[in-house]
Design a protein that fits this description.
Number of strands of chain A: 6
Largest sheet of chain B: 6 strands, parallel
Radius of gyration of chain B: 15 Å
Order of helices and strands of chain B: HEHEHEHHEEEHEHEH
Number of helices of chain B: 8
Largest sheet of chain A: 6 strands, parallel
Shape of chain A: globular
Radius of gyration of chain A: 15 Å
Strand content of chain B: 15-25%
Strand content of chain A: 15-25%
Distance between the termini of chain B: 40 Å
Oligomer: heterodimer
Shape of chain B: globular
Strand order of the largest sheet of chain B: 2-1-3-4-8-7
Structural class of chain A: alpha/beta
Order of helices and strands of chain A: HHEHEHEHHEHHEHE
Structural class of chain B: alpha/beta
Chain lengths: ~180, ~190
């Protein structure tokens, strides 16, 4: 990495408080989470302390899919906050509940080990590299969040998921500050 | 040991405006006995019934949510016991029909058929835990179980069932989900 690239990389930020603001503006009341080191400091700790959001801590990521579905029947919006490994582990639940049953399942997925200056498809991490193709194969829209300029994608994506009763994945490619 | 359909017949007498979440064999049997809009069927992702129920319980704290789980299903989502206990919804009642086998998948035994679900729920932190092996006892206490402050857990020790016809198409109809959602979005 040359000096100019280093400077540019250092200037790029993804601000956790701005993500949380966008989540709230989307009408989300519940955060369903298994800890992920990518989003731990910048999102999960602040969310845990935020009185406007109800954090539901679960043991395994596929639980979140069922909980979000149940909440949606009650007209309550939820955001699932997990690591990509948990996303992969939950694929059958996502297949059944989100895709085949057409439920509004909103997933914010931390891409552990992803190089922030790359697109996920170009990652050196196999597990990261396959996330977008899996979403494509399952017909799940996905959005890449790597800098604050990307945060305008959050509210429209969540609104669309609930309007159309369909899933969406928001892929977090950088540790939020 | 009890018959599951006999337990469900008794339960049916106590069900009014509760949402009943049922999965696989229990879902087929419950729907035969008590078809209603407020039934929520969890088919397709085995084990998630208790998690669907937690979402419903948190979304509508004014309404009782009753889960009719299977033993094989619950074993696929044991962590949900801890998650439910931590979230502590007072309006959730979680039954597991313990027939010691994967009934919907050929009747093969559980890895440990004698697993103590009530003990697991107690350790997980459920507020109330019950264990029923006699129909008379279940009949006497089910009304109390359904009105306790939850989360409530109850094991129903049941025999392997009469053969069921495993056709889920009717339970999976999208129209059921639309009707349930409409019913739950009423005050």
């Amino acid at each position: 990495m040359d000096a100019a690239t280093t400077t540019k990389a250092e200037q790029v930020t993804l601000t956790g408080t701005k993500i949380i603001t966008a989540i709230k503006q989307s009408g989300v009341e519940f955060i369903l989470a298994v800890p992920d080191i990518v989003t731990s400091k910048g999102l999960l700790f602040p969310i845990a302390a935020d009185k406007e959001l109800r954090l539901v801590r679960v043991c395994k990521e596929d639980e979140c899919v069922g909980i979000a579905s149940g909440l949606s029947y009650c007209d309550k919006r939820a955001l699932i906050l997990i690591q990509y490994t948990g996303f992969l582990d939950s694929l059958n639940a996502i297949r059944a509940v989100a895709v085949e049953y057409k439920q509004p399942i909103v997933m914010m997925v931390g891409l552990l080990g992803h190089e922030p200056d790359r697109q996920p498809a170009e990652s050196g991490r196999y597990g990261v590299r396959i996330i977008e193709p899996i979403c494509d194969a399952m017909g799940i829209p996905h959005h890449f969040l790597s800098q604050d300029a990307d945060l305008s994608k959050i509210k429209p994506a969540i609104d669309k998921a609930y309007a159309e009763s369909s899933p969406v994945a928001l892929l977090v490619g950088r540790r939020p500050s | 040991m009890m018959n599951r359909d006999a337990c469900f017949e008794i339960l049916k007498r106590h069900i009014t405006d509760e949402v009943v979440v049922a999965s696989y064999s229990g879902a087929l049997e419950w729907n035969d006995l008590n078809p209603r809009t407020l039934n929520y069927f969890s088919i397709g992702a085995m084990g998630l019934g208790s998690s669907h129920a937690l979402g419903l319980a948190l979304g509508r704290p004014d309404r009782r949510i009753v889960v009719l789980d299977g033993d094989g299903s619950l074993l696929m989502n044991l962590g949900s016991l801890v998650s439910i206990a931590a979230a502590a919804p007072k309006n959730l009642v979680h039954f597991v029909c313990h027939n010691e086998c994967y009934e919907a998948n050929g009747g093969h035994p559980l890895p440990n058929p004698k697993v103590d679900f009530a003990g697991l729920a107690r350790s997980a932190g459920y507020a109330q835990v019950h264990d029923f092996a006699e129909l008379r006892s279940f009949e006497q206490q089910v009304g109390h179980v359904l009105t306790q402050s939850g989360p409530v857990f109850a094991t129903l020790h049941v025999q392997k069932n009469r053969p069921l016809v495993y056709k889920y198409d009717d339970l999976n109809k999208a129209s059921r989900r639309v009707a349930l959602k409409a019913a739950l979005q009423q005050p």
